[in-house]
Queue: 3 jobs
Job 1
Amino acid sequence: MKISRKIAGVVLAGGLSSRMGKDKTQLLLADKTLLARSVNLLEQTSLDAVFVSGEHANYPHIVDIYPQLGPLSGIHASVEFLFSDFDAIFFIPVDMPLLSVAACTDLLAKFSQYPQGVFYQDSTFPFILPMDRAVQAYLAEIISVERKQARSMYRLFTTFNMQGISCLPTQSFRFQNSNTPEEWDNCLDTYHSLQKHKD
């Protein structure tokens, strides 16, 4: 008998955007902010609830317990906040504007096959993290250590034997990040190219 699990979606949006030079969450793509696009993307996926990691009063949000320590800050705070009510968390970053509903849906399907957790191996995001006491304790331990290397995503994935999956080469552009003005320009070029092919 298949056991249904409650999965929350979380948009990681608590960074300083220092490399971009302006707030990434408020960058506009097709008249929508990246934050609004990311929340809307998760809302179109069959998740039980959607939250934003970071101080974003217009959305159900989760504030970092240990601020400005990279993605693990938001992951740790989200696990602490959602642990009692959900079984797993589907994480996406706010700066991946070309991510598709199909890519998220495919990852959810793979989670049924790999309940230890699953991620896109060429980009690390998005990923699905199951929550149990071991995961909670691990995050609580590494978030408080001084060594930055201990807070790596790769170490989290390998510690819990999470499964990396590959995407089709034709879809690799979906996982482009926009951390810098140059990367943002590349994303905009790709987006406009996609729109032209649609017309």
Job 2
Amino acid sequence: MSRVVLTVMVSLDGIFDGLGEGGERIDWMRADSERLDYSVELLDSATTLVFGWRTFEGMSSYWPHQSDPVAERMNGLPKLGCSRSPRSTSWNNARVTSDAVAEIAALRARNDEGIALIMGSADLANSLTAHGLIDEYRIAINPVVLASGVPLFAPGRSRLQFDVVDTRIFASGIVEIRCTPKPQLAS
């Protein structure tokens, strides 16, 4: 079975996406050589990259014009953009689906050792979480409080419980928690 892994950065107060336009939404995220090396390591473990549509648009407009180890992997790996409506893309090795749940369920059911890596994409993550389709969460907590913005987990959802399988502290102060969802008990 393939695994579906979400990797995302949040603030201490759980905000995934800050307020503002363009780069202002993510200018609080720390990136240094250690995080870049980690990004390469993470991308090397992936067999497919998966993005919600807003994240896909940003990535597809940025990465094709870059030339570094991260760009090489971002542009070379198969990619899936998830949109609620039919769309097209010209990004190398990418396709678009309007049925993310069915596509991810099919990816997950493949009989291989593949890893579908969801990068960012809080709306998509919430939808897939609701359907039990994410096998591992890698949440990098950035030591900043934003106080407003888009939370990673949508308000009003059912309680989620996780088992922590690993943690990693980066020199920049970022702490990544790797966890797997516990089976949800019926109430």
Job 3
Amino acid sequence: MSRLFIAVELPERLRERLAKIQGMIRPVLAGVRWVPPDNIHLTLKFLGNVEPDKIELIGEALSRLAADRAPFAAAAEGIGAFPDLRRPRVIWAGAASGAERLQGLAEDVEAKMFNLGFPRENRDFSSHLTIGRFNRPTAIRGLDAILEKAGKEELGSFPVDVITLFQSELAPQGARYRSLGRYPLRGETVGNR
């Protein structure tokens, strides 16, 4: 079985800016596992463990979805934490501009994967880029000020023109992601979809 997820890849310049943000925050936050910049992406749907015979069906569904969706631009802006600043588990950069279209794309991916037998997410989609995970929820005094200062850095825009099916391979030094298929968005621009 393979652990799979569907995501939007980021351009190198944005990953470099996120690495700079990590560098600003790292000295003042202990207990955080920082996501290697090359691994930062925008997850549309985590599929979990998937039987190999289902991978082709997933690819076909993503190909059909991508053919109907127009490419668009999104922008990363602001730094925050999930579930909240009092006991954070994840540090993220937000996807502000283009968030509605990302939400629509994620909903379409969710529907296609549900049709293939994958359960729906229990929580609403939140367009974000995970840059760090706390080893355990920890109360951190002044986290809001730390993240606010880091969030003033300009992050920039990124194209949403391809969705990628990734395989996550766990290794002692952390997860490695391997692309199993890239599906260019080729639809016409119409409304928010």
